[in-house]
Amino acid sequence: MNEIQDINQQEFDVAMASYYVDQGLEKWVVTDEETANKYMRIIRKLEQQKAEVGGIRQKEVQRIDAFYGAELDELESKANFFKEFLVAYYQRQREQNPKFQLKTPWGKVTSRKVVSPTWQDESAVLDWLKANKRDDLVKVEESVKKAELKKAFEVVGGQYVDTTTGEVVPGVTVEEKTSIKVSVEP
Fold first, then answer.
1. I need a surface site. Which of 76, 101, 163, 164 has the fewest CB within 10 A?
2. Across the chain, where does the E strand assignment appear?
């Protein structure tokens, strides 16, 4: 089998230069398989360039994220250092005066009691709620099984129809579309 030959750089450069200079449609119409083959090779080259750009972008994003992530971590660490001293002072003052409030023009320290459950076995809780008829505390999510619906009914006149009863399924219409995809070999 013949190996796929990439478009050479000169052909590619000429095609790209023509694209930028003359975008008249008549020049670009595919009239034979040789032209179609050339366009496939051009698209393949452009897809390779997109992948290269994407790779470069990803590396740069990772590098920038790593740099700023370290900067943010250091700043967070420094802020937490000072927050610990404020919290310790606040707690000492609250021991002496339970109504103590710490407010400054730049911020405040507050506290509140929080009840936070730990869910060891959510399924046991769910079973218990069902057994005790507390369905009001059980969340049930319903949705249409779209793939199964498509298989179960026939399309007649742009609608799903139950062929056993002749009933039309309400709330959905079916439109036939043709999808065309250009794919190039990597």
1. 164
2. 102-104, 107-109, 154-156, 159-161
Contacts of 18 (CB under 8 A, 6+ apart): 27
Report the alpha-carbon distance of residue 76 to residue 183 in Å, rounded.
48
117-166, pLDDT tens digit by residue?
Answer: 888 899 988 999 889 998 899 998 888 899 998 899 999 888 999 989 99
Q: Residue 5: which region, alpha, beta or left (left: phi > 0; alpha: psi -120 to 50)?
A: beta
pTM here? 0.48
| CA dist 79 → 82, 105, 107, 109, 113 (Å) | 5, 18, 13, 14, 24
Residues in the chain: 186
CB count, 10 Å around CB of 160?
19
Q: Exposed, middle or buried, 46 (CB in 10 Å: 0-12/13-18/19+)?
A: middle
